[in-house]
Design goal:
alpha+beta; about 450 residues; Beta Polymerase, domain 2; elongated; eight-stranded mixed sheet; single chain
Length: about 450
């Protein structure tokens, strides 16, 4: 196959396809979902074009096992629905067919095109409406990155490449299709996707695609906060939170997503805060690798911790007692962050509990330790304490005490409680004054 860095054009200006026959690519049907194959074959057998597309093909080309399989076809959504009883149509801007097989959903899209007359944008260039059916080559040019624009043809088991995606996979690089400035303006989330794919797959973003990101990072402020919440989960809960965070900082995207965090990192406490974030993101990645549950609230609690402390100091300076200042600071920081990333209430409550328990964990005397351990957020707060504690610090000593206490039996727990309980002075009972004996007594 000819190596290309962009795409070759035909006389009519459309991109020419490179066809990689089955013997020259690694994709085997045994690695494709049986349900996805059912969908592909049924479409093909009814005379429609049918391709596996996107991240599924990309991952199979890299020898990975995809989680999802997406199908694209020239059949219209209503035609797809007519072929599958287990199909429902979803989406407003662009109708998609969801074909359900138990817990697995195969998403089927119709080829799309981009025609200027049908595209509505904001003044910044962000696309707000774009809904036109097209052909496979037009569909390829609409996709975000070359490595996501590979098509597996069920008709002959070949891979169809219009934009040099196979070349980029071999070079371990990530390239935006088209003019990166224009494509990022159309959908600023593409900048986050570039970071996510680069870190997840170990790809280098080519200079032409990387250079505009710091300049256009501000466009993320035009993305709906609810969508940014979903994107943050994809960024941090895929097992690559540590390199992803560093890439977000490097590209300036963190300044827009987490402005209070970015500001705190530049403060006098920034170095310790940076190390705390590193420990927390590495711990998150380790938990995911071990198939342990991860709550996104935990990382948000980490990223916003120093802003809360700084804000607490501000309110203390205005005369509030520490407890009231901390509560007000926590509410303020969460409210400001939610204006950018819409953290659902069920997670903000977890974040707040983790923070508030940091003030309670040092208070272990009497029955407090048992009451704290019964708190539903105790374990998360305990892990948070261990991660934020600097070596040989008071927090480290408290964390070690809690580690011992959790593993101890009842007798040992009583001993540990005595160690942190204030010693009560023993008052000797005073003697009653002795009456002097008199002559009459």
């Amino acid at each position: 196959m000819k190596k290309i860095t962009g795409w070759r054009s035909q006389p009519d200006g459309k991109p020419a396809a490179d066809i990689i026959p089955r013997p020259k690519h690694p994709i085997s049907r045994k690695h494709i979902s049986a349900n996805a194959l059912k969908v592909l074959y049924r479409l093909h057998n009814h005379g429609y074009q049918a391709y596996l597309v996107g991240g599924g093909v990309r991952d199979l080309m890299l020898g990975l096992r995809p989680k999802d399989f997406d199908v694209v076809t020239d059949a219209r959504p209503e035609q797809v629905k007519a072929l599958f009883r287990n199909c429902r149509l979803v989406g407003r801007r662009f109708r998609l067919a969801h074909i359900t097989f138990g817990r697995e959903i195969i998403e089927v899209a119709t080829f799309r095109a981009r025609h200027a007359d049908n595209v509505k944008t904001k003044a910044s260039g962000v696309v707000i409406q774009d809904n036109v059916y097209g052909t496979i080559d037009e569909d390829a040019l609409r996709r975000d990155f070359t490595v996501n624009a590979l098509y597996y043809n069920i008709a002959d088991y070949s891979v169809v490449d219009f934009v040099g995606g196979v070349h980029d996979l071999k070079k371990r690089q990530l390239s935006v299709i088209g003019d990166p400035m224009v494509r990022y303006r159309e959908d600023p989330v593409r900048m986050l996707r570039a970071v996510r794919l680069a870190t997840k797959l170990g790809l280098k973003i080519v200079p032409a695609s990387a250079k505009p990101i710091p300049k256009l990072a501000y466009l993320l402020s035009e993305v709906p906060p609810a969508r940014l919440w979903d994107e943050c989960n994809k960024l941090f809960l895929a097992g690559y939170a540590h390199p992803t965070w560093h890439k977000l900082v490097e590209t300036g995207l963190a300044d827009v997503l987490f402005p209070m965090t970015a500001q705190a990192l530049k403060s006098a406490d920034g170095k310790a805060f940076r190390e705390f974030i590193d420990r927390a993101t590495l711990s998150t990645d380790e938990r995911i690798a071990q198939h342990k549950p991860v709550n996104p609230a935990f990382l948000f609690a980490v990223l916003l911790w120093l802003p809360v402390l700084h804000n607490t100091q501000k309110w203390q300076g205005k005369g509030l007692h520490y407890a009231d200042a901390f509560q007000k600071a926590a509410s303020e920081v969460l409210a400001r962050q939610c204006e950018i990333v819409a953290i659902p209430k069920r997670f903000t409550s977890v974040i707040r509990d983790i923070w508030l328990l940091q003030n309670q964990l040092p208070k272990r005397a009497g029955k407090r330790a048992e009451r704290l351990m019964a708190h539903p957020r105790f374990r998360a707060a305990y892990d948070f304490l261990l991660l934020r504690a600097a070596p040989e610090s008071e927090e480290a000593d408290i964390g070690q005490w809690w580690t011992q206490y959790q593993a101890a039996d009842a007798t040992e727990r009583r001993r540990l409680i005595r160690l942190v309980s204030p010693r009560q002075r023993k008052h000797r009972r005073g003697r009653k004054p002795r009456h002097k004996r008199t002559a009459s007594s």
